[in-house]
């Protein structure tokens, strides 16, 4: 199959970018979106042009490295699917595909489709941890975890930090990411000591980094490749409000 | 946003319920107007309660608007470069129209106050003669249209706002989306009952 792409090309963070049209041939329906870009890049290299830069690592949907805006939807049209797990059979060869990087002020474009997502690491540093006695591994079951708490924590812990929620949010908010981290740590007994300060610190960090405010539009959950539920945001707000109430 | 929204929503519900006294005839609704002004007179003086409510509402509207402007400005700063292709967002119509819907509501409130509170824009416009003022208003299709548009905008605003406010305050309600939808529809229908029953001649 033959596809027409309109890909965002930008040589560096400070250089203006633009959409460039390419046609890629010999694409099989079973190729992933990234494999399709690989085919394009091989051709560009043979032609002596710069390949399209994009982030990727595991290519099995669990690392969170990949992620581009495909026709205006983060990670493309398939629900709960990362870009690397998205197959070309979902695309109509007659329609051009627009490929853009995540757009958010805290995610500056490094090159082409690659953005710097280390702002999310700053959010984690501000509170996404638990304090434990370092040393020998604790005994299994030393701290009993109720099954519902384990399930909720696991659901939130599935967040791979890809940044699709920020990219999709009309407000450029990282609320779903932060909420996933706050939920995953905050519902477990191990996460209780810092539960409220964690929520408050992480929300302050994301605000300071220039992410927008949450208005619960639900765009984030819709594109999240791990299907993090919007309820996690309510839990985050709950912890933030109780932190504010306690400190005042 | 959620707290001021809750204040405004409680007022809207009381207002809607109070409006239904219109169907009890001129004495009922006009008497209700007097009752509101006489209520707590020993403490607040005649009409005192009404003014207390007005001040609280004005404060809530100003704070609600300020928060909305702050959110919109932060959103703009958070995405200085937009997407070349951005299809219809996946969230609902109600969520997308919160900001402009809010502007429409604010403009409507100004008109509504000039119409039925101050009476300046009312065809009848007699202070305290609520029933006649309302009946005079809704003889005109364009007044009915203006009120309908505003009330429907309010319905959409509540549809997203109620649900969103609960989450902002940290609550998770089972079937929150449905509950918000039902409340929004009840308020919308309740408010529209008066203009439509006048316009179609059920109440004269």
TrEMBL record, chain A:
InterPro entries: 2Fe-2S_ferredoxin-like_sf, 2Fe-2S_ferredoxin-type, 2Fe2S_fd_BS, 4Fe4S_Fe-S-bd, 4Fe4S_Fe_S_CS, Beta-grasp_dom_sf, Helical_ferredxn, SDH/FRD_Iron-Sulfur. PROSITE patterns: 2FE2S_FER_1 (PS00197), 2FE2S_FER_2 (PS51085), 4FE4S_FER_1 (PS00198), 4FE4S_FER_2 (PS51379). Its cofactor is [3Fe-4S] cluster; [2Fe-2S] cluster. Residues 18-105 form the 2Fe-2S ferredoxin-type domain. It comes from the Bacteria. It comes from Actinokineospora auranticolor. The keyword Iron-sulfur applies. GO terms for molecular function: 2 iron, 2 sulfur cluster binding; electron transfer activity; metal ion binding. Belongs to the succinate dehydrogenase/fumarate reductase iron-sulfur protein family. Keywords: Iron, Iron-sulfur, Metal-binding. Residues 150-179 form the 4Fe-4S ferredoxin-type domain. This is Succinate dehydrogenase / fumarate reductase iron-sulfur subunit. GO terms for biological process: aerobic respiration; respiratory electron transport chain. PANTHER family: SUCCINATE DEHYDROGENASE (PTHR11921:SF41), SUCCINATE DEHYDROGENASE IRON-SULFUR PROTEIN (PTHR11921). The keyword Iron-sulfur applies.
UniProtKB/TrEMBL annotation, chain B:
InterPro entries: Cytochrome_b-558, SQR/QFR_C/D, SuccDH_FuR_B_TM-su. Keywords: Heme, Iron, Membrane, Metal-binding, Transmembrane, Transmembrane helix. The keyword Transmembrane applies. The keyword Magnesium does not apply. Signal peptide: none annotated. One of its GO terms (molecular function) is metal ion binding. It comes from the Bacteria. It holds the Pfam family Sdh_cyt. NCBIfam families: sdhC_b558_fam. This is Succinate dehydrogenase / fumarate reductase cytochrome b subunit.
């Amino acid at each position: 199959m033959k596809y027409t792409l309109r890909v965002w090309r930008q040589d560096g963070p400070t250089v203006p970018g633009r959409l460039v049209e390419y046609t890629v041939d010999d694409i099989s329906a079973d190729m992933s979106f990234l494999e399709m870009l690989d085919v394009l890049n091989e051709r560009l290299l043979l032609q002596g042009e710069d390949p399209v830069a994009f982030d990727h690592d595991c290519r099995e949907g669990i690392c969170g490295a990949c992620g581009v805006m495909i026709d205006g939807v983060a990670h493309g049209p398939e629900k709960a699917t990362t870009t690397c797990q998205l197959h070309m059979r979902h695309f109509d060869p007659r329609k051009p595909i627009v490929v853009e990087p995540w757009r958010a002020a805290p995610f500056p474009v490094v090159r082409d489709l690659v953005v710097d997502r280390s702002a999310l690491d700053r959010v984690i540093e501000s509170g996404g941890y638990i304090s434990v006695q370092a040393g020998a591994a604790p005994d299994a079951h030393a701290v009993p975890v109720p099954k519902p708490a384990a399930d909720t924590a696991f659901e939130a812990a599935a967040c791979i930090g890809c940044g699709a929620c920020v990219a999709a949010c009309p407000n450029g908010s990282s609320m779903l990411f932060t909420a996933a981290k706050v939920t995953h740590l905050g519902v477990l007994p191990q996460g209780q000591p810092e539960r409220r300060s964690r929520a408050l610190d992480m929300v302050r960090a994301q605000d300071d980094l220039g992410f927008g405010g949450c208005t619960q539009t639900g765009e984030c959950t819709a594109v999240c490749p791990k299907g993090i539920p919007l309820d996690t945001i309510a839990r985050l707000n709950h912890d933030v409000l109780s932190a504010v109430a306690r400190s005042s | 946003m959620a707290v001021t929204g809750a204040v405004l929503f409680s007022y809207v519900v009381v207002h809607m319920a109070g409006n239904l006294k219109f169907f009890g005839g001129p004495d009922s609704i006009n008497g209700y107007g007097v009752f509101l002004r006489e209520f707590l007179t020993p403490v607040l003086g005649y009409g005192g309660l009404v003014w207390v409510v007005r001040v609280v509402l004005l404060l809530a509207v100003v704070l609600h608007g300020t928060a909305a402007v702050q959110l919109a400005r932060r959103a703009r700063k958070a995405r200085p470069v937009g997407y070349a292709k951005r299809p219809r967002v996946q969230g609902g119509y109600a969520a997308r129209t919160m900001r402009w819907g809010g502007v429409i509501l604010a403009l409507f409130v100004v008109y509504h106050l000039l119409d039925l509170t101050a009476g300046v824009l009312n065809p009848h416009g007699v202070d305290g003669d609520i029933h006649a003022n309302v009946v005079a208003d809704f003889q005109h299709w364009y007044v009915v249209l203006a009120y309908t548009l505003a009330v429907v905008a309010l319905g959409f605003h509540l549809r997203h706002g109620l649900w969103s406010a609960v989450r902002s305050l940290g609550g998770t309600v089972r079937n929150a989306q449905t509950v918000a939808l039902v409340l929004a529809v009840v308020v919308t229908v309740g408010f529209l009952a008066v203009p439509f029953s006048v316009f179609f001649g059920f109440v004269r």
